[in-house]
Amino acid sequence: MASAKYRRAAAILRARRAGHPIKREYAVVGQTRGTVYDVWHVEPTPTDPFTRNELLEQLGLDAAEAFGGISTVYATSPADAAARTRREQARLAGLADTN
User: Fold this and answer.
1) Does residue 24 contact residue 73 with C-beta atoms inside 8 Å?
2) Which of 40, 46, 48, 91, by CA, is between 20 and 30 Å from 55?
3) Is the residue at 65 inside a domain?
4) How far apart are CA 10 and CA 77, in angstroms?
């Protein structure tokens, strides 16, 4: 029986061969300023749960010191992660076009 790690790697290879973009988790650090969400930092999160928790905790502490916040989002690239986070923040603030 194949392990979960092997199945995940095989699924990624199949998706790449089919030309589908691969989504992964990114940590996005930023701050809401009025109607704009400033993205300060985007970083892929580690797949190891312990390392991921350490990274998110450290980024969260650093963001809180600067009156910012951190969120995680699944995206195909760091630029896509920043754009998705901005759209979500605008939606939460009621500024997004919901049509």
Assistant:
1) no
2) 91
3) yes
4) 20
Domain count, the chain: 1
pLDDT at 37 over 90: no
Domain membership flag for residue 38:
yes
pLDDT of residue 92: 82
Distance of CA 4 to the CA centre of its chain: 22
Is residue 28 a part of any domain in this protein?
yes
Phi, psi of 50 (to 5 degrees): -65, -50
Write the CB contacts of 27 (distance below 8 Å, at least 6 apart in sequence). 41, 42, 43, 44, 45, 55, 56, 59, 70, 71, 72
DSSP 3: -
Domain that holds residue 28: 21-92
How many other CB atoms sit within 10 Å of the CB of residue 85? 23
Distance CA 59, CA 78 (A): 16
